[in-house]
């Protein structure tokens, strides 16, 4: 499905603005990108659909063709960012069989997510809409799914029962998330590679020292 083209130049001079013929999936991606900017800058409550449509270079009816309301638009973005983070963590754990490197890769997954373009992490970790049940569930999933992935790895490799493995996983996720956000808030004064090495060494000394994992 495409939208009728009236011009070949976007509202802001780009190739994907008002009236440009785009496949539905491409138009949706464009609208999500515009909404991302507005939600991160203004927060949910101060964001306006008018501004999102203007930023995307489309009319409000076009925006509402894809998203029936502001909450649906926000949730589409939030769920995609949660999926991105969880997939980063899962990919990190699957990237090597060396457990020390697994810990480092898991820590790096959080730093890379926080350091990504568009400040997507703010919607996940700093949402101003946590009172909305759907938002609260999505935000919680970012932590619980990451913890679950790490728990499975620790249980298999260290021979720990699930409760001990889960608590270690919660510690690693919390350490990674909080330090990554603190690192960014400090204007990246430490190189990301150095920050990841510092925190992953701290985590590994606890996990690897107290619970020798089998390679």
From TrEMBL:
<protein>
    <submittedName>
        <fullName>TetR family transcriptional regulator</fullName>
    </submittedName>
</protein>
<dbReference type="GO" id="GO:0045892">
    <property type="term" value="P:negative regulation of DNA-templated transcription"/>
</dbReference>
<keyword id="KW-0805">Transcription regulation</keyword>
<dbReference type="Pfam" id="PF21943">
    <property type="entry name" value="TetR_C_46"/>
</dbReference>
<dbReference type="InterPro" id="IPR009057">
    <property type="entry name" value="Homeodomain-like_sf"/>
</dbReference>
<dbReference type="InterPro" id="IPR001647">
    <property type="entry name" value="HTH_TetR"/>
</dbReference>
<keyword id="KW-0804">Transcription</keyword>
<feature type="region of interest" description="Disordered">
    <location>
        <begin position="1"/>
        <end position="20"/>
    </location>
</feature>
<feature type="domain" description="HTH tetR-type">
    <location>
        <begin position="25"/>
        <end position="85"/>
    </location>
</feature>
<dbReference type="GO" id="GO:0003700">
    <property type="term" value="F:DNA-binding transcription factor activity"/>
</dbReference>
<dbReference type="InterPro" id="IPR054129">
    <property type="entry name" value="DesT_TetR_C"/>
</dbReference>
<dbReference type="GO" id="GO:0000976">
    <property type="term" value="F:transcription cis-regulatory region binding"/>
</dbReference>
<dbReference type="InterPro" id="IPR050109">
    <property type="entry name" value="HTH-type_TetR-like_transc_reg"/>
</dbReference>
<feature type="DNA-binding region" description="H-T-H motif">
    <location>
        <begin position="48"/>
        <end position="67"/>
    </location>
</feature>
<dbReference type="InterPro" id="IPR036271">
    <property type="entry name" value="Tet_transcr_reg_TetR-rel_C_sf"/>
</dbReference>
<keyword id="KW-0238">DNA-binding</keyword>
<dbReference type="Pfam" id="PF00440">
    <property type="entry name" value="TetR_N"/>
</dbReference>
């Amino acid at each position: 499905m495409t939208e009728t083209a009236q011009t070949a130049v976007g509202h802001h001079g780009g190739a994907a603005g008002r009236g440009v013929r785009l496949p539905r999936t491409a138009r949706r991606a464009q609208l999500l990108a515009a909404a991302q900017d507005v939600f991160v800058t203004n927060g949910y409550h101060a964001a306006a659909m008018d501004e999102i449509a203007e930023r995307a270079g489309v009319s409000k009816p076009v925006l509402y063709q894809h998203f029936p309301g502001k909450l649906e638009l926000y949730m589409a973005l939030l769920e995609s960012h949660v999926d991105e983070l969880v997939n980063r963590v899962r990919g990190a754990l699957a990237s090597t069989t060396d457990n020390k490197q697994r810990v480092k890769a898991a820590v790096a997954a959080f730093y890379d997510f926080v350091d990504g373009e568009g400040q997507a992490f703010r919607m996940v970790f700093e949402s101003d809409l946590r009172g909305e049940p759907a938002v609260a569930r999505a935000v919680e999933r970012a932590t619980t799914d990451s913890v679950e992935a790490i728990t499975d790895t620790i249980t298999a490799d260290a021979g720990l029962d699930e409760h001990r493995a889960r608590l270690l996983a919660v510690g690693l996720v919390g350490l990674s998330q909080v330090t990554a956000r603190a690192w960014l808030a400090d204007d990246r004064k430490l190189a990301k590679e150095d920050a990841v090495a510092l925190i992953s060494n701290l985590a590994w000394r606890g996990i690897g020292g107290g619970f020798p994992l089998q390679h």
